[in-house]
Amino acid sequence: MFSSLWVSTVLVVVSATGLGFLVATVGGGTLAMSVLVMRYLLRLRNVGHLFATSTAVTTAMAFTLLFVRRQPFRPLWRPALWFTMPGILAMAAGHALHHGLSGHLRLALLGLLMLLNVLFTMILPKALRPTKRLTLRTTAAGTIVGLIAGLFGGGGGFLTFPALLWSGLPAASATGSSLLSVTVFSGVATIHNLGRCAIDWHIIPLYLISALAGMSSGIWFGKRQQARRSRLSMQWIASGLMLLGGLYLLQHNWSSLYRPSLALYDGLKGGFDYEFTN
User: Please, are residues 249 and 107 in contact by the beta-carbon 8 Å criterion?
Assistant: First the structure.
């Protein structure tokens, strides 16, 4: 019989390698999946440490992909900066708010946002047209994503790509620009978490080595498989995993979403009953 530690180690290596491969071939939208791996395979129960550790790994992976593989992930610097600068300021406000959210609620909201990410990533490239308000849109989108990133205590990487698509960037440019923004967002969040000693350094070496190995394979695969059909297949796989991951998080944490609503409903119902019976 294999020990549970050995089985968990193998599962983490396989999961991190596969995630790294997808990140290298698709462009970074699946980085939120590291939260599921660390939560349910590595059993990292403290949600604050979970998001902080995932953010540290995301920083290293996004930085590596941005500066190692220039094509097809070349960013448009001006829109990326207009997106990132207000996002950093909004992160500060989000950090001040996220301490009031329970761990299960943050995980449930993350699952919901992952589902929305899949929906927007599939719809926006076909529905949006080029806009003359690119600067205004990127600034507004960066502010929203930065606020959400601070609220979760992470880098918000999985929201950056659809947000840049909404801003008016074509998909090819949004991919590289999102990597730049994710690197900055996650880097700032990691520096903040270092001061709070919230990062679990026992997890990072094995996870990061496996993910970087998967990224190396993904870069090699991307250079050899230039066909549009191959890229679309990998995007469908990544979207499917994000969809399953979001549903999994919701299934395990859904009660944290309806309890506040149920409490509000009970309070209103009690008020109406009192009003009409007395």
Answer: yes
